[in-house]
Amino acid sequence: MSSLLVPRCVYVDSRQVLEAIPRLVELGLGIEVMFGSTDALWPKIKWDVLLGLSDDLADAHLPVSCHGPFNNLALAGKDAHIADYSYQSLSAGIEAARVLGSPLMVFHTGFLPQYPPTARGKWLDLFCDKLRGLLDVAADNGIVLAMENTYEHDTTLFEEVFARIQHPYLGMCLDTGHAACFARVPATDWIEKFSEQIVHLHLSDNDGLSDLHWGLGKGVVDLSALIGPLLARGSRPSVTFEVSLEDARGSNDCLDRVLSSHFPTGHE
Fold first, then answer.
1. CB atoms closer than 10 angstroms to residue 172
2. Residue 60 near residue 19 (C-beta atoms within 8 A)
3. Are 60 and 24 spatial neighbours (Cβ–Cβ below 8 Å)?
4. Given the DSSP bridges, would you call strands 238-241 and 144-148 parallel, antiparallel or unpaired?
5. At what angle do helices 245-262 and 17-27 cross, to 10 degrees?
6. What would the pLDDT profile of 46-100 be if each residue is shown by its tens digit?
7. What is the mean pLDDT of the chain?
8. How far is CA 251 from CA 7, 30, 73, 192, 228, in A?
9. Which are the contacts of 259, defined by CB distance < 8 A and separation ≥ 6?
10. pLDDT per residue over 154-163, tens digit each?
11. What domains can be seen in the chain, in order of their start residue?
12. What is the DSSP letter of 168?
């Protein structure tokens, strides 16, 4: 089953890549470089840092995916300065993804469910306007933008974004942990609505209340109920295990068991 849902990566903060590489090589898994801070990206891209990381990853022959910066960013923020900073940081993240050898960059919308309904339309206008600009940058760099579900209570926001913007470089990252603890709809709703847009998976488990990033099989996430319908619809996304390095092997084994249950004869 190892040829299904590949490449498979483990998320690692950009500042911890070097120490993680030997363990990932041992595990036979790739890396999702996560920019938990914008300090290497903006207001000035630290090319020496990024090129050094790129060389180290290439030397290790690791598959690479990339998670753009997200902490405290607000792409559709009311404060124009913060919105612009967010846009420039994500633009730099796209360039970093290209340099690191990733085919995609995962990003968060920055939407918060606490926004009043009256503000939703204005937020969508601002977000989609910024997103169109980012997609121009993504196309120039050959990077797919994978929009990740985070705090959304249901699928409607993503439905509206995909209805407004159809672009070959826009896809979705389905996060199973977020769907389990933040959404108020069955996790399978995301599969039913967006199987054609899902290009990447973030896999982790939790208790259904908090985003704990447990290893697969340790919480409430019914991985089989998600993977089965996704594969049945023809989707073959790449995967990142958003778990600790200690839980990576067990999570990979859990995914293989789920895949074996859907393809018992080995046919893919």
1. 25
2. no
3. yes
4. unpaired
5. 40
6. 999 999 999 999 999 999 999 999 999 999 999 999 999 999 999 999 999 999 9
7. 96
8. 14, 14, 30, 24, 17
9. 1, 4, 5, 227
10. 999 999 999 9
11. 8-262 (3.20.20.150)
12. T
Task: Find, among 266, 255, 204, 258, the residue nearest to 32 by Cα.
Answer: 204
Which residues are within 8 A (CB) of 184 and not within 5 positions of it... i.e. 6 or more apart?
A: 153, 154
Taking each helix axis from N to C end, the angle separating 117-141 and 156-164, rounded to the nearest 10 degrees, works out to: 50
pLDDT in tens, 166-200: 999 999 999 999 999 999 999 999 999 999 999 99
122, 158, 170 from 166: Cα distances, Å: 20, 12, 7
**Pairwise CA distance, residues 33 & 74, whole Å:** 21
Q: Is 2 exposed, middle or buried (0-12, 13-18, 19+ CB in 10 A)?
A: exposed
Average pLDDT over residues 129-150: 98
What is the pTM for the complete model shown?
Answer: 0.96
Query: In terms of DSSP bridges, do strands 104-108 and 198-203 run parallel, antiparallel, or are they unpaired?
Result: unpaired
**Residues counted in the chain:** 268
